[in-house]
Amino acid sequence: EAQVTQNPRYLITVTGKKLTVTCSQNMNHEYMSWYRQDPGLGLRQIYYSMNVEVTDKGDVPEGYKVSRKEKRNFPLILESPSPNQTSLYFCASSLRTGYSYEQYFGPGTRLTVT
Amino acid sequence: DQQVKQNSPSLSVQEGRISILNCDYTNSMFDYFLWYKKYPAEGPTFLISISSIKDKNEDGRFTVFLNKSAKHLSLHIVPSQPGDSAVYFCAASEGNQFYFGTGTSLTVIP
Question: Does A56 touch chain B (CB under 8 A)?
Answer without folding.
Answer: yes
